[in-house]
Amino acid sequence: MALLNICVYPDPVLREKARPIDAVDGAVRKLIDDMAETMYNAPGIGLAANQVGRPVRLIVVDLQREDDPHGLIVLVNPEIVRAGGELVWEEGCLSVPEFFAEVQRHENVVVRGLNADGKAVEIQAAGLLAVALQHEIDHLNGRLFIDHLSPIKRDIFKRKWKKRLLEAPA
Ligand code: K1U
Ligand code: ZN
Questions:
Q1: Ligand number with the minimum distance to the CA of 14
Q2: d(Cα 38, Cα 40) in Å, to the nearest integer?
Q3: Torsional class of 115: left (φ above 0), alpha (ψ -120 to 50), beta (otherwise)
Q4: Residue nearest to atom 14 of ligand 1 (CA)
Q5: Residue 144 pLDDT > 90, yes or no?
Q6: Hey, which of 7, 14, 45, 147 would you mutate to test ligand 1's pocket, going by the most ligand atoms within 8 Å of its Cβ?
């Protein structure tokens, strides 16, 4: 397994619409293993393939909580097939480090995709798991959590980010 480099905003790969994966072969399984290791190392509770510079439709999610029965969720070509309710959650993103903001999401989602064995699976999720799945699927569509902010909050974010880039050591 290998640790992958996590692309940081405003890297253009984060704005690409990821392409579907044709077959869950050895190369895809290696990417799954490397992404899981990278997510645990970060640490994070999710990771989408675009975040490691590979614009293909693959996400990994693990809430890493004792009360979560799912453990590591791997979804190839994930699709939200049902969504309902609303909740607001304070989100972070490994590609937008050290910035957190409240985002409104669906409270419940049902997501279908393929697992690491290429088998069709369906995940029924609520609360944080539903939020994380929506956040990761957004990544596959080139969307970041900052895109959900009001124009004023997004503007504040952009100014803070510019300032941070200017202050960063060369
Ligand atoms: O996609 C990503 O950038 C990962 C992101 C996922 C996410 C977090 C919170 C709400 C929605 C989606 C993260 O994992 S940020 C880090 C984080 O939240 C965390 C890290 C360690 C323990 C617990 C949480
Ligand atoms: Zn993210």
A1: 2
A2: 6
A3: beta
A4: 44
A5: yes
A6: 45
Nearest to 74 by CA among 124, 17, 35: 35
Which residue type sits at 93?
C
**Is pTM beyond 0.90 here?**
yes
Ligand 1 shell residues, CB under 6 Å: 43-48, 89, 91-95, 131-132, 135-136, 139
Other CB atoms within 10 A of residue 47 CB: 27
The closest ligand to the CA of 100 turns out to be 1
Confidence check: pLDDT of 170 > 90: no
Beta bridge partners of 73: 61
How much distance in Å is there from the Cα of 26 to the middle of ligand 2?
A: 26
The residues that bridge with 114 in the sheet, in sequence order, are: 76, 120
Distance 9 CA to ligand 2 centre (A): 10
- Supply the pLDDT for residue 135: 99
